Amino acid sequence: MDDITKIGLLLFLNLLTLTTIFGQEEFSIKGKITDAQTGETLPFATVVYVGNESVGTTTDVDGKYELHSKFGTDSIQATFLGYESQIVAIDRSKKSQTIDFQLTTEAVTLVVAEVKVKKERYQRKENYHK
Deepest of 12, 46, 116, 123, by most Cβ within 10 A of its Cβ? Predict the structure, then answer.
């Protein structure tokens, strides 16, 4: 191969790589997370892409979130301490969509342990040295 062919091939590969990187569409998902029973917003809940948990966000004090990414998956998950997590499918044909979550409280089973203390009479057995 001559130098001109090598340069042409290199430029073509660079152009192909750049169109692949910059040609991907950005997905925008927004919504609100609330308590299913009371309707109260859940501030600082976590919303992530399922399968790519490194891309995510938290809700603001009003329970609202916005998630922008070029590398989305087919569903997102909302989690909040004391609530069951919820997964919702994303419509990948839409660039922008609104997905609201209504989380239900998680059932917690508490185990009660009973401790019995037996008091014995104190006997002084040379507790001090002379």
Answer: 46
